[in-house]
Fold each of these.
Amino acid sequence: MKSMDRLMEIKKFYTVDKDDKPIGLHAPLQPFSIEDGVMTCAICHGPLRDITRYGRLVSRMQLDESTKKLNLYHNRGYSILSEELSRHVQRLQQARAPRPVQWAGSLQIYGVRDKILNAMVKIMQKLNPGRWEKLLDFRNRITEYRRRVKSAEQRFQLVRNKVLAEQRRQQTPGYFRITVHDEILQTNAILQAEALEIRLDIALIADLLSPAHLLQMGDMKLDLNLQKPRDECFVLARTAERSGRLPQQVEGQIFIAQLHALERPHTSPSNAQRCLELGKEAIAKARSVCEAHPAQTSGFASEINGAERMLTGVTFYGEVTSEERMVVIRAMAREFQRTWQ
């Protein structure tokens, strides 16, 4: 036991008495602070995971290892989905114009993104059936990816929830205070998933509001309000800022500007001017972040310029993700894999 205690450096993790018996926790264990070490007995090479004396150290290693694998899986998934999204939207923009259809009445597009999407799908089924079929299937994949990377699905959060549930069951005081920080949960994956979903939804809104589809609708009244999606983008940007996730902070501001640009032609003159001002404000915020942190926000310049051209009416809607940005995403994925393997 003394040999194993020295090998496992037990005094770094527990407060021990004069007989080397653990009597308390020595200090909080930081995530990923323990290098791959002894997981088996030095003599018989049996596993240590069932040895209570070394349970804290072994559990820490297991949590770190499972989190590394989970993060690698999520990062690969994000890279693949980003490239697929770019290809899907590019094919959508190159698709043929819809056939003429008689349309009567008015259209109301407002509310949260899911409500807007449901309304747009019903409209598109009349305008151009099958046009969004593959994109909607792809959106379901993004939504599933977003569900998997939520903090509740990550190992540290699961452990915390189990401890709190056991405390409530036994009605014991909260001796174990487990605080799960962003760097432990790797919230980058959560924010990336939200940004992917918002990117696709904006592309679908832009497609419905494209000149070809609007011409097909004729003189029909269009009631468009994209405030709820903009609020979601604001929350994305603010959460990313608090978590230090600069790319998603920039993306959130770009999305806000794009949504203002899409709503501007379909609202009152006074609100159109406000959309222009708020859109320019979002563009300025995105640029300021890029200028302050050029290395972490590489590849966003063309997207920011594209959103600005949308606001001023120079272009209707640009590419969903610039090729420069895709190069950065691929490079980051490779570097991430080397770092975490």
Amino acid sequence: MSSLDPKPVAPVPGHRTRDALVLAGLFGLVLVGLIGLAAATGWEETMAQIARLTWAQVGILLALSLVNYLMRGLRWHMFSRRLGLNTTVMQSLRHFLGGFAMSVTPGRVGELVRMRWIRRETGWPFERTAPLMLVDRASDLAAMGVLLGAALALSASGIAFGVPVTLLALAGAVVATRPALLAGVATWGHRATGRFHRLFARIRRAARALSAFSSPTLMGVAALFGLVGWFAEGYAFHLLLVWMGSDIGLAKAVAIFIFSGLAGGLTGAPGGVGGAEAAMIALLSLEGVGLEASVPATAIIRITTLWFAIGIGFAVFPLAERQSLRQKHAMENR
């Protein structure tokens, strides 16, 4: 292993136990908070709202989340092939979905495990595949920023800090997909801190590799995948509110869902847990939705989006590990 090779990012068994405990702790804290709000509101009203939902409706919510995961997974595959990786669609989906298990890590850095699986299966080092994570995250920021901006424009009333959050998301997407800008940020960061030379050097190398994604057609298709995927979950939130008798309109529901996700991400908490739920409940309350509806609606939409994704990740993770190790051994024995 050369000095430039990254340290393994896939969790060893002890790390997986730690991540599972972090996941359980986060879920527990959010659950305690939601239970407290439900108790303060009145259990009867909260349970009555939950009882409105049928299993078929829950299935629709999960199906719309799957649309999001599938669109983004296909986008990941498209980016992988554009970078030059000879991976199949099933490989890409396995990498992408398995990475959801690491969404509970701070800043979601644990999702870099996808790079390790790719390295095992293709031999490509981290420096060559790092642009995948950058362009994928930037595409999400761009899609969410555009959706939030459009939803705010179409809704009757705005959201406090909605425009700044939109601009931040779009600015992050621009920086992450412009090689010169990203390299400049890395240079400035190194000069400002005087530390982390290897990290900033890798960022500069990754920035140069981003030129592979400069095609307007490629980024246009990627933007379409992202817009369809994130709109599907925003639409699910709208349907949920309608079913609970708290219709605030499609545009406003999408705006609240996207804003809450972005705002939660800004807190740095894994998956935006805590911040996203607080923002969602507060914004629904401002729209006149009582706690007896906003609390269960928030809990259900987060379970059927974030926690559903994490559950899929934990189911796919062992398969991705086994397959990557099998292919690594096959390459070594050739």
Amino acid sequence: MGAGRTVTLEYGTIAGAQRGWAKISGTTVNNDLVWMDWTTDGGSSWLQCGPFAVDRGPGTSKTSAAKKTMDVSGYQFRACGYLKNAGQTKCTSPWW
């Protein structure tokens, strides 16, 4: 994302199901934002989970809620973040 911050799309097994979430980390500041989008039409439209604000001080990470990624036919995901002091939004690409 720049300014020493990174937004990543991550996944893992939670409660027996593969789930994905967005994470912002690095030189974060309070009120940087992170969220996860998901689409079923290749990104023409999407649903957004979040945003969730960094709220535990500089340099702390924050994640979005986790969304089930297996057995959800046609779903694609991306992670997005907003840098408070830069006033910019960026998302991972391409959709996963």
Amino acid sequence: MTPFEQLMAYQRETAALEQVAGRLGWDQETVMPRGAADQRAEEMAAMEGVLHARRVDPRVGDWLAAIEETSLDDTGRAQLRHIRRDHERATRVPARLSAEIARVTSKAQRVWAEARAKDDVAHFLPILEQVVALKREEGAALAAEGDVYDAMLQDYEPGMTGAALDELFGALRPRLVALREAVLAKPEPQGVSGTFDEGVQMRLSRKIAQVFGYDMKRGRVDKAVHPFSSGSGLDVRITTRTAPTDPFNCIYSTIHEVGHASYEQNVDPAYLLTPLGQGVSMGVHESQSRIYENQLGRSRAFTDYLFREMRDAYGELGLVDPEAFYVAVNRVQKGYIRTEADEVQYNLHILLRTDIERRLISRELEVNDLEEAWNARFLADFGYPVDRPSNGVLQDVHWSVGLFGYFPTYTLGNVYAGCLNEALRRDVPDLDARLAEGETAPATDWLRENLQRHGGLREPRDTIAAACGAEPSEGPLLDYLEAKFGSIYGL
């Protein structure tokens, strides 16, 4: 075997073990007995120890040094780019630290869920303090005298920097705030009314998942406290959640996670268990979940179809016609929860979280001051106070599992989705007529062909640019939001 062949064989074994580790995480959030949490933390730490040892194995460096890149095609060079970057990052983090992060975050996730259920911030803060200390140490190791938060961003969006986020967020905020103020000055539209059987919600969500192309032979839909997607290739699972008075929560959480899962299911099978065999970044991943959920799932056309499906499932919804249903699906209203936020306000939630976690990582803010900082920032940004911790600092799972640097990718995904939607509608002029009949294939096929099948072949921004034919920018997203909600609210 050539050095490249040896490296790729080794990498496939590592990728297979990573999938096993991911399955442990899926099990923990769906069906694991509550009493197993401490043991699972040790299992996760042991698995991370094995994986870290493989990532820093000196043979990886030897193979990389021995490979003549000019002998490889574009795919081979892309594989090397990912492997070299991951190897260099892994060698900066001590094995002890990597395993300890896995162990502590596994425990912290359970403690967070308990604290959220009880609205008890004090129950969560001690273990969060451990997580933050460990992640600061890891970030410093990765940064190698550079900016720690920039180093953290590379785990989720390679090539992104805090300075670039400042520029993007600065461009987004004025128009988003102006649109929100104009919309909220209008009368609030009617929403759905009634109680919606949670078993029916799950059955309908599984049907809608398949409408959007999710392959149930290679996946499944379960319930979790915080919806997520897990896995890649031939085993890609999603979770959703239900609320008896809010059927949209389940439907749109499902569509969102199907966007993630479809990306993973649609990567070229030739890339299976290689660095190219999964989404290239979380920003690009979020572009898929957000375009499925919003530009497609919340479109006037698709909601015509969904209105009929929901009436068949539940009977009367308290809404007179498809137009009223479309407005209810896209209703802008005051609220606290990011995952339930409308398109107009969603990115303002992300700006809040990104600023707070950057302060936390830089030590400008300490864990014990986190709730006060959150509440003050929310009041300043949204104009009303947080009523309880589960609607504030305890609402998101991300910090409990150490995902510092992840939140900005949600807004990057929205920006990318705006660009993709513009290109998609240019290329598929009859899209709305098809969506009104519940036919999503013209859109999902376009996304598969132009983006999803390529997996990690290109860098994140290049992936979007190749699909759209232009460099990504915030303009298409802002134009889309102003046109859509200007029409709904008569602005």
